[in-house]
Write a structure and sequence with these properties.
Two copies of one chain form a homodimer.
Chain A: H1 8-21, E1 29-30, H2 32-39, H3 43-56, E2 59-61, E3 67-69, H4 71-77, H5 81-101, E4 104-111, E5 114-121, E6 136-138, H6 143-150, H7 154-163, H8 176-189, E7 192-195, E8 203-210, E9 216-224, H9 227-248
Antiparallel strand pairs in A: 1-3, 2-3, 4-5, 4-9, 5-6, 7-8, 8-9
Helix pairs in contact in A: 1-2, 2-3, 5-9, 6-8
Chain lengths: 249, 249
Amino acid sequence: MAGRTSTPGQTVSRRLLAVLDVFDVAHPALTLTEVAARSGLPVSTARRLITELRNWGGLERLDDGRYRIGIRLWTIGTLAPQQRGLREAALPYMHDLFQATQENIQLTVLEGTQALCIEKISSNKAVPTQTQIGGRLPLHATGVGKALLAFSGKELLGSLAAAGLTRMTPHTITQPGRLAAALAEVRKSGVAYSYEEMTLGAASVAAPILGLDGGVRAALGIVAHSRSAVDRLAPAVRTAALGIARWAG
Amino acid sequence: MAGRTSTPGQTVSRRLLAVLDVFDVAHPALTLTEVAARSGLPVSTARRLITELRNWGGLERLDDGRYRIGIRLWTIGTLAPQQRGLREAALPYMHDLFQATQENIQLTVLEGTQALCIEKISSNKAVPTQTQIGGRLPLHATGVGKALLAFSGKELLGSLAAAGLTRMTPHTITQPGRLAAALAEVRKSGVAYSYEEMTLGAASVAAPILGLDGGVRAALGIVAHSRSAVDRLAPAVRTAALGIARWAG
C-alpha cells in the first residue's frame, strides 16, 4: 500500500479520522464514492472504515445510500468544554436578546484562524445568514470575528495578514493596516462592527466575552439588515456579553 | 499483542474509538492511566492513540495533565441529524415553556434502550436534576422515557423487561405488566408522568414529538417539584410538543 509507514497503527488512525473530516456543514451527507474522493482514500479502504464507524455509531446510513454523522459522535462532542459551561451561561442572555430584537444572535469562539459558531438563535423574520452551529466565519470580515481578533495576541493578526485578507464584498477590509486600526477602535469601545463586509445587505455588531485572565473566551453578535439597526443594538449586545462573562465566571 | 487479529487495521480502529468511549458525562476529564484502565488498553497503546487524537484536535490536554474531548469532535458532532433540525425547531418552544414555568425543560431522543438528552433549559430556581445535555435517562422511570417508550414498538418494552426494570426509588414501576398498562394510558392521553419514580422530590411530565410517519422522533418534558405542579403543566407541554412536531415537519 502506497504511503504506508512502518507504524501501520498510526496510518490507520489517521485514515479513520480522515473519513470523519470529510463531513462538514456544506457536506453533511456523502456517498461512499464521495467519502473516498474527499479523503483521498481508495474506495475499498473507505468502505472498510465506514463500516467500522457505522458499527460504532459514529456514522449512519441514509435510505438513499449516503452516510452522515451519527448520534454517538454528537454525544461525545457535547463533552467539549467550549460547549458546556459557556453555552449554558450564554443561552438565557441570547434568548433575551432575541426576544428584544428578533434578529440573528450568534455565539462564537476562536478556532484556529476562524470564528466557530457554537450557538445561534434565529427566526424566519431575521435577515438570512448562512451561519450554522458548527460553521466557521472569517475573523476580518465579521463583527464576532473582529471582537475575537481584537482581544487576541498580535501574532494572530500577523498570520491572517500573511495569508491574505480575503475580499468577501467590496466593503471588506483587506489592508492589514486598516484592519489593525479598526481593531484598536474595538478595544476602546468594546464592540465590533461589520457593515456589509461579509455579505451585502447584512450588518453585524458583536462584543467579546472575556475571561477572568483578560483573555477572550468567545464573542456574542447580532446580524441585522442595516447599519442603523446594528448601531442601535450595540449597547444591548455589549450588556449581554458582560452578563455572560460574569455568569460564566 | 494479545487479542490482535489478522486484520490489524480493524483492531486499531476499534482501539481508537475505545479511547473516545471512555469519556462521558460522569468522566469528562481523565488521566492517561484512567484512559488505559477504562478502555482496557495497555498504557503505551493508550498514550499513542491519545497523541493521534490530540494532533487531530479530538482530545485536549488540561494543565493538570488530564485529557478531555476537544472542539473538533464537537464540531463534527453538530452534523448529526438529531441535533440539527429537531433542536432548532424545538428551542423556541422550550424557551416559551421555560419563561412560563421557570422549571427544567428537556428534549430527549431514543438512543438504544435509554433516553438521550439533546437539549435542556434550566435555572437555579428549578428543582435540581442531574440530567445534562448528552446524558442518558432510563425509559421506564422518567416522563420523557415513558413518552418515547409508549410510541415505540412492543419489542423495546420486551427487551427492557427482559433486562429487568431497575428500581430507582420506592415509586419506580418495576413490574412489566404495570408498566405496559401505564404506557397504554400514555398513548390514550398523549402525556406521560413520573411521580418520584426517578428521584425522590421530583416529578415530571412529557409528551411525544411524532413524525409524519407516526413514529416518535423525540419527547419534550418538564421536571418540577411536585405532582400537582406537573399535573398543571401537562397541557402546556403537550401543546409545545405538538407545535414542535408541526414545525419540524
